[in-house]
Amino acid sequence: MRAFVFDKYKAPLHEGQVPEPTVGERDVLVQVLAAGVNQLDEKIREGEFKAILPYTTPLTLGHDVAGTVISTGSKVTGFKPGDQVYARPRDHRIGTFAERIAINEADLALAPSTISAVEAASLPLVALTAWQALVVRGNVQPGQKVLIHAGAGGVGSITIQLAKHLGAHVTTTASGKNADFARELGADVVIDYRTQDFEKELSEYDLVLDSLGGENLEKSLRILRPGGKAIGISGPPDPAFAKKSGLNPVLRLAITVLSSKIRRQAKKLGVSYEFLFMDASGDQLRQIATLVDNGALRPVVGKTFPFNETPQALDALAKGGIRGKAVITVP
After folding, report:
1. % of the chain at pLDDT higher than 90
2. What are 189-244's pLDDT values in tens digits?
């Protein structure tokens, strides 16, 4: 079948023929209708995560999918042929830039019924990231102050909406041209990162979701109230992540060292830092689908690309400037 693969780290993405998926007893075979494009795809291709998430090449990329169930494994009870579904397949089972994919049923959910397959494909990775940051890790409560960086991007545009749904006072950083867009999504305060320094404008925040890392993360720690939390999705990874991932002792030590500076800074300020690398979860996607169908969350698709332009979609995302998500449509 047709798929988009890279042959070795840093090599370009190209179309190729790959074997049909193997369907295990707990797997669901899905005909791909649309696939979301994520920064994670490019970071994996570039080899940024190969120490903590090693893949053998050639590798079919793609972490988001919406499609139609073709068949199910012998022990699958929750899905049947013809179901419209969406998913973020678990690590080491990715590969949605293809005509078909086999997905563990635990990672899969019925797609929201009120949106298109293209819109559904834009959601899984970013919506699960938002859910795990705000609900699971952050335990965000009504009235709390939340700062979400890069509010016009894929993760930010969904996280703003979820934070608002949870009753938070929501601040985001965005370019001036995206300020009105961020407010439409639910942001109470928009900081223009090109002309304003958020550290000088904000204080006493309960939670920050940081997608940029580096100096931006360090400044984010300083606007938290005592006991507040910064959650980073671009790193650095922390010891809790290394332990959960079952990494070897050498890697665990390296990660401990890598994150020691930011963790020391957090401790000194009386706040905390956690690294979030989202987990696949069909259960959480079911709850997210309910929020979409109830109108609490709306997908933001900035641009679509036909299947044969998958490499161009990845390039466009890397260059930036796309509001929300880029999505590939599969014939």
Report:
1. 95
2. 999 999 999 999 999 999 999 999 999 999 999 999 999 999 999 889 999 999 99
Question: Pairing mode, if any, of strands 2-6 and 59-60?
Answer: antiparallel
Q: How many CB atoms lie within 10 A of CB 152?
A: 26
Half-sphere exposure of 115 (CA within 13 A, CB side): 29
Cβ-based neighbour number of residue 179 at 10 Å: 17
Cβ neighbourhood burial of 326 (10 Å; 0-12, 13-18, 19+): buried
300: helix, coil or strand? coil
Measured CA to CA, the distance from residue 297 to residue 28 in angstroms comes to 27
Instruction: Output the CA–CA distances (angstroms, integers) from residue 263 to 121, 212, 253, 272, in the order listed.
Output: 35, 16, 14, 7
pLDDT of residue 68: 98
- Is 214 in contact with 234 (CB distance < 8 Å)? no
Length of the chain: 331
* 218 vs 8: CA distance, rounded Å: 34
- Hey, what are 147's tokens? 């700062």
Confidence (pTM)? 0.97
Query: What's the rounded Cα separation, in Å, for the pair 82 and 35?
Result: 18
The CA distance from 9 to 50, in Å, is 9
